[in-house]
Amino acid sequence: MSNQATLSLRKDWDGGVSPFGVSYGKLFMWFFLVSDALTFSSLLCAYGFMRHKFAGDWAKPNDVFTHFPFIHKDLPLAYVGFMTFDLIMSSVTMVLAVEAGHRLNRKQVAVWLFLTIIGGFIFVGSQCWEWYHFITGEESHQVFRDYWMNGKHIIDPHFQGANLIVNAYTQLPTFGDFFFCITGFHGFHVFSGVIINIVMLIMVLNGVMDRRGHYEMIEKAGLYWHFVDLVWVFVFTFFYLL
Amino acid sequence: MDFFEEYKGYPNYEKAAIHDEAHGKPVRKKLWMVFWIMLGITIVELIIGSQFNFTELNKEYTFIFLTLVKAFFIVWVFMHLGDERRAMKYAIIMPYTLFIFYLAFMVITEGVYSKVMRDALFTMVLH
Prior knowledge:
The structure holds two protein chains of two kinds. Chain A is mainly alpha-helical. Chain A has a single domain, classed as Up-down Bundle (Four Helix Bundle (Hemerythrin (Met), subunit A)). Chain A is about 65% helix and about 5% strand. In chain A, strands 1-2 form a two-stranded antiparallel ribbon. The longest helix of chain B has about 40 residues, at about 85-125. Classes of the chains: A mainly alpha, B mainly alpha.
């Protein structure tokens, strides 16, 4: 730390020192995250376009996402609130694992990483549950729908739930399409983040990081995990709150 | 400066962040404080989202502002971008921010225009 402070006193681009002052692995993790962030931003911008184009016809999230496990009452936003809390919490445990890695404390890194993995699994499971209820819908919210599917004209006065072609929440199929596309893409990121964390945990337990003499690999995995949290913050706002 | 001499001209950046127990304590305190701030912001968002009847525009701007605050905390504190050197900060933040704010501005302007055109065309067809 003191060395970095000394370095930052010099001008970054004067020559003689690396302007970025990070290892190449961390630098390219950042570059990957920027490109991934551009992908997500493009998807969210496309969503914003549709939302403004069909303003007024779009479904109100407070009427769609009202379920909570084991409680048969309408609780708008409660479950996504829990999911957000879970992801922020797992982000904190991850950053504590990184901090323990800076102290070369193998045991604490393993404990915090394990808690992060648990949080990740809870989030992925929650998303499965959310998707299940979004797709199947409920009998009290049946609507008349007239649509084409697999080359057949279907007239269904008791349609409920959602798929890629039609949904019960609004007349616009784009609502379901964007929900499945963006939350699915994000859920896939969470899942791969959990896999990366499991690999990191196995490496830590086998003492790979101790042999290297530093825990920077945990920091890189942590960058990815925080990025997943970052994307969820935006998905949460644009899909569930606005 | 042993920092430079360790690898003969190539500084060992992987070990730059290693610190001792005494230095770790305030770092952890800061992390937990950021967690509580973010939790508070999320709870405020949920209360606004489910309870209060703001006018729509006010609500939207409040949510987007609070989201940007949370995003700042994640990137700056949790991802440790605030601890990096200035060149690194700019290399990560500037291209992304400039491009995305421009893209969002263009796309949403176009979306609003599309609605105007759509409404106008439907009105013409119906009458």
